[in-house]
Amino acid sequence: GEDVEQSLFLSVREGDSSVINCTYTDSSSTYLYWYKQEPGAGLQLLTYIFSNMDMKQDQRLTVLLNKKDKHLSLRIADTQTGDSAIYFCAESTFSGGYNKLIFGAGTRLAVHP
Amino acid sequence: NAGVTQTPKFRILKIGQSMTLQCTQDMNHNYMYWYRQDPGMGLKLIYYSVGAGITDKGEVPNGYNVSRSTTEDFPLRLELAAPSQTSVYFCASGAGPIGTEAFFGQGTRLTVV
């Protein structure tokens, strides 16, 4: 079945790079997403990658997609305290008659001085 | 910019009580969704709507009902609250089907005791 897995916690020092990893199961996914959730807030789309791309860079964010291994990663360069949040990986998939987003459980990123 | 607004933010219900979680969006989006987020888990789709008057079940619809009488509003109804419905509920909207960007509300934290 469909499943998205990611590690639950990551702790990094301010100024270092953070790498959040995600694996998914649906090889037919068209889009893969990274959402950010700050405390007490809803999810906010951070970036996404189309399935025919290997890499996407957007300022401090780099998304790498390995379709063969069904592995997605989000790299945040020069991590700041404001980056502390929960990061959700999600894949878009079509099943049961409709398109849907399958979310991972989220990775809590803690940035310390 | 209001975006997606959910009320209430917090609620405690007794077993067997009923309540309606409100969701409204001001972006004229056709697509709206209700998700629940359990601790340590990804978001699960409860119900979704592709336009006023049209709703359909998601992955975990049991115990819930929805209606979509206007483009803006998509309330979620719990008729007989059960402890298993203790969760954080997120409403989201989007211009296209799931797979395009979804905008999320801040969430409603519901506890059933």
Distance between the termini of chain A: 41 Å
Shape field of chain A:
globular
Helix content of chain A: under 10%
What is the structural class of chain A? mainly beta
The run of helices and strands of chain B is EEEEEEEEEEE
Query: SS-based structural class of chain B?
Result: mainly beta
Q: Number of helical segments of chain B?
A: 0
* Poorly predicted residue ranges of chain B: none
Order of helices and strands of chain A: EEEEEEEEEEE
User: Alpha-carbon distance between the termini of chain B?
Assistant: 35 Å
Main beta sheet of chain B, described? 7 strands, mixed
Question: Please, could you describe this protein's structure?
Answer:
The complex is a heterodimer of chains A (113) and B (113). Chain A has 113 residues and is mostly beta strands. Chain A has strands spanning 4-6, 9-13, 18-24, 31-37, 43-50, 55-58, 61-66, 71-76, 85-95, 98-103, 107-112. In chain A, strands 2, 4, 5, 9, 10 and 11 form a six-stranded mixed β-sheet that branches. Chain A has a five-stranded antiparallel β-sheet with strand order 1-3-8-7-6, with no helix packed on it. In chain A, a hairpin with a 2-residue loop joins β6 (55-58) and β7 (61-66). Chain B is mostly beta strands. Helices cover 0% and strands 50% of the residues of chain B. Chain B contains no helices and eleven strands. Chain B has strands at residues 4-7, 10-13, 19-25, 31-37, 43-51, 54-57, 64-66, 76-78, 87-94, 103-104, 108-112. Chain B is globular. The chains are: A mainly beta (113), B mainly beta (113). The A-B interface holds A 4, 8, 30-31, 35, 40-45, 48, 88, 90, 92, 96, 98-106 and B 4, 6, 35, 40-43, 45, 48, 56, 58-59, 90, 92, 97-107.
Highlighted features:
heterodimer; A: mainly beta; six-stranded mixed β-sheet; five-stranded antiparallel β-sheet; B: 113 residues; seven-stranded mixed β-sheet; four-stranded antiparallel β-sheet; globular
How is the topology of this model organized?
The complex is a heterodimer of chains A (113) and B (113).
Chain A: E1 4-6, E2 9-13, E3 18-24, E4 31-37, E5 43-50, E6 55-58, E7 61-66, E8 71-76, E9 85-95, E10 98-103, E11 107-112
Chain B: E1 4-7, E2 10-13, E3 19-25, E4 31-37, E5 43-51, E6 54-57, E7 64-66, E8 76-78, E9 87-94, E10 103-104, E11 108-112
Parallel strand pairs in B: 2-11
Antiparallel strand pairs in B: 1-3, 3-8, 4-5, 4-9, 5-6, 7-8, 9-10, 9-11
